[in-house]
Write a structure and sequence with these properties.
Elements (H helix, E strand, L loop, with lengths): L1 E2 L9 H16 L5 E6 L19 H19 L4 E6 L3 E2 L1 H7 L3 E5 L6 E2 L11 H11 L1 H10 L5 H7 L4 E3 L4 H11 L5 H16 L1 H12 L2 H18 L1
Parallel strand pairs: 1-2, 2-3, 3-5, 4-6, 5-7
Helix pairs in contact: 1-2, 2-9, 4-5
The chain binds ligand L4XM7KOE.
Organism: Sphaeramia orbicularis
Protein name: Enoyl-CoA delta isomerase 1, mitochondrial
Pathway: Lipid metabolism; fatty acid beta-oxidation
Length: 238
């Protein structure tokens, strides 16, 4: 599955819905042995959630958006397929979350790229299931530091903390993803055993999580922080 939503593969409601439909189709396809997620765009795996979906939108729309974010995570984290993230560019926040849903992460060894949960930099808090996914990937202490600082990691740092499993030359990300994928032939039952408690936690709190998101994101102070962050993104470009 090659992500293609220019300019930066931000995860809008529409794009999330497309991703969920694609994953669902693959999940039902008995001939499909697994999934490699990568990006068709240069330099960016995914810029994370589409910030415009969280800025100036109605509570109803925000709720619909958040349900789609949850759905993407539930589908990928709970997938019966062997999944590999072939991270061929930067992968902040929701992009990092998407990578962490996979069984294995291969990243392009380009020091210009970065990956991490940087929500704190936007003045927002990573939801509990983002935090749980990271804890399951890199451990409690690293997650605590990482979330408090909104830390982004270059590939070497990401490898060191275990946020990615392997670094490869930029032009060989696809080759290594396919080679590694071929070595894993059957989705292991231990995957669901390890992930079930984390998945059950969100499933049982799904509606409350949507309500929390909507009331948090529509607050004036949070909207102001997001507006300032968007301005900063645009200025940085000039
Ligand atoms: C009580 C507790 C309750 C808890 C409730 C929950 C709280 C809310 C939780 C929300 C969790 C949020 C998760 C997220 O994923 S938020 C998104 C975070 N993403 C980022 O910060 C990434 C920002 N982007 C970048 O760093 C760079 O764009 C990137 C490195 C990805 C690429 O750099 P590049 O130089 O190639 O591209 P540009 O920066 O020039 O960007 C091109 C245009 O794209 C726009 N852009 C970038 N990122 C986003 C995005 N995520 N959403 C929307 N738009 C984005 C950027 O502004 C440029 O636009 P213009 O061309 O119009 O200027």
């Amino acid at each position: 599955m090659s992500l293609q939503n220019p300019p930066v593969n931000s995860l809008s409601l529409e794009f999330l819905t497309d991703i969920c439909i694609s994953v669902e189709k693959l999940e039902m396809d008995k001939t499909c042995r697994g999934l490699i997620i990568t990006s068709s765009l240069p330099k960016v795996f995914s810029a994370g959630l589409d910030i415009m979906e969280m800025y100036g939108k109605s509570p109803e729309r925000c709720g619909e958006f958040w349900r789609a974010v949850q759905e993407m995570w539930l589908k990928l984290y709970g997938s019966n397929m062997v999944t590999i993230a072939a991270i061929n560019g930067s992968s902040p926040a929701g992009g990092c979350l998407m990578s962490m849903t996979c069984d294995y992460r291969i990243m392009a060894d380009n020091p210009r790229y970065s990956i991490g949960l940087n929500e704190t930099q936007l003045g927002i808090v990573a939801p509990f299931w983002f935090k749980d996914t990271m804890t399951n990937t890199v451990g409690h202490r690293t997650t605590e530091l990482s979330l408090q600082l909104g830390q982004m990691y270059n590939p070497a740092e990401a490898l060191k903390i275990g946020l990615v499993d392997q670094l490869v030359p930029e032009d060989q990300v696809s080759h290594y993803s396919h080679t590694n994928h071929d070595q894993v032939t059957t989705p292991d039952r231990s995957k669901s055993m390890m992930r079930k408690p984390t998945i059950d936690k969100l499933t049982s709190k799904r509606e409350a999580d949507i309500q929390n998101f909507v009331s948090f994101i529509t607050k004036d102070s949070i909207q102001k922080s997001i507006g300032m962050y968007l301005e900063m993104l645009k200025k940085r470009k000039r």
